[in-house]
Amino acid sequence: MNPAADAADDVCALCARPVDELRPAGELGPVVAHLVEDNAKGTLGICPECGERAAALGEALRRRERLFPPGSWRILPTPLRVGAPPQLTGRGVTIAFLDAGFYAHPDLVEPRNRILRYFDLTNPRARHAELDVPGASCWHGLMTSSVACGNGRLSGGFYRGLASESDLVLVKVGTARRIVHDDIRRGLDWVIRHRRRYGIRIVNVSCGGDYEASYLDDGLSQSVERATRAGLLVVTAAGNVAGRGGVVPPASAPSALTVGGLDDKNRLAFRGYDMYHSSFGPTPDGLQKPEVIAPAMFVAAPILPDTDTAREVRELVRLAETADGELPDRLRESGLELGLEEGAAGDPERVRAAVRAALREQNVINADYKHVDGSSFAAPIVASAAAQLLELDPGLSPQQLKLALIRSARRLPHVPVDRQGWGVVDVARATRRGR
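-> C-alpha cells emitted (435 positions)
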C-alpha cells in the first residue's frame, strides 16, 4: 500500500484540501455530479463543504436556466464562487465607493434605496437626481458598487453581491476620461469627515493615482493612513499593469488592503485557479503588494441601462431567442449588421452563428448583465467580504478585518508569493473564524 497515494485520494477534487472523508459527487444527483466533473476534470470525491456549494450552484442554475439566452455566457454567481455564506449580506454596514461616476441601478435602489448619499467632488452642487442619468462616466462605478452591494434584482437575486443588504455612499472623484491623483485624496478625506454621519466602515477605491510614491510624503497615501486610524478599512485595487511594479497610491499605502486579480476560470475548483495580469510590488517603500487576490475575470455586473450598448444587447438577446423561420426578418428590424457578408442575412444558421459570436465578444450574460474583468472588480468582492465579517462582529477594527481576510486566504501553489500575497480570499473560512 502506498501512503502517498492514499493521502492523495483524500484530497477534495474541488478545493484540493485534505479531508478525513470524501463523498462521491454522484450521491448528490446527476446535476451536481456533472457540475463537479466539469469543474474538477478528474476524481469525483468531494468534501462536505464543496458538496454543499456544488449542490447550491446546481439548484441555482436549474431554477435560473431561463436567464441565459442561447449562445450567451453562463457566468456563475460570485457568492457561490467564493464560498460566501448566503445568510450573511452585510446588514447594518455602510460601504463608501470612490469612482469616476455612478448610477442608481435597480439592483441598488429596489425595493429599498440603499444609497445614503451621493457626493460629486467635481461638482459639489450636483444632486442625487444625477444618478438617474446614464452618462459615459457612470458605468465603472455602477459595476464596482453593484459587484459588492447589488441585490441581483434584475436576475431574481441570482447575480447579487456578497453585501447585498449593505448601504452605500457614492463619491464621484473624476470622469471616465481622467481621475486626478489629488482628487482621490480629496474624496477619501470627504469620507473620513462624514464617516460617522453615514456609519461608513469600509471604503472601496477601484481607481489609482498618477504616479508611484512613498507613503511618507504622498498626500493620498497619508489619507489612507488617516482613514485607517479613523476606523475605516480601505480596500484598493492593485491595478492592471502586468508584471512587477506599477502599484500606485492608494494601493501602495501600508494600511490599505490591496487586492490583486485571480482567474478562477468561472469554476469552483481551486486546483484549476490561475493569476490575472494585475500589478504587484514591491512599492517604493519596499512593501509587498497585493495582500490578497480575488476573482478578476468573469465577474457578473449590470449593463448600464438606456445606453447604445444596452439597446444593442437587447436586440442581440431577442435575436438569440427568435425561431429560425423568423430570424432574417427580425434581423432586418433590429438594424444590426453583425458583419455578415451580402446574402448571408437570409440564412438563419449563419445569422445565429453571428449572433452567438456577438454575444460572446461583448461578454453578454443576458439583456441586463455582462461579465467584466480587472482588479477594479476584485477589490469590491473583498470589500463586500469584509462587510460580511462586520455583520458578524461590528466591533472589528480595520486592522482586525484585514488580518482576518489575510489569515484565511489560500495560496496558489504554482504562483510566486510576490504576485499573490497571502493568496485567494476564502470567504467561507474567514466568516467561520469570525463566528
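The first helix runs from residue 3 to 9.
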